[in-house]
Amino acid sequence: MSNPAALPSIAWIGLGIMGSPMSENLLKAGYPVTGFTLEQDKLERLAAAGGTAAGSIAEAVKDADVIITMVPASPQVEAINYGPEGILENARPGALIIDMSSITPQTSIDLAKNAAEKGIRVIDAPVSGGEAGAIEAVLSIMVGGEQADFDAALPILEALGKTIVLCGPHGSGQTVKAANQLIVAVNIQACAEAVVFLEKSGVNLTAALDVLNGGLAGSTVLTRKKDNFLNRDFKPGFRIDLHHKDMGIVTDAARNVGAALPVGAVVAQLVASLRAQGDGGLDHSALLRAVERLSGAQV
Question: Domain of life, per the record (predicted)?
Answer without folding.
Answer: Bacteria
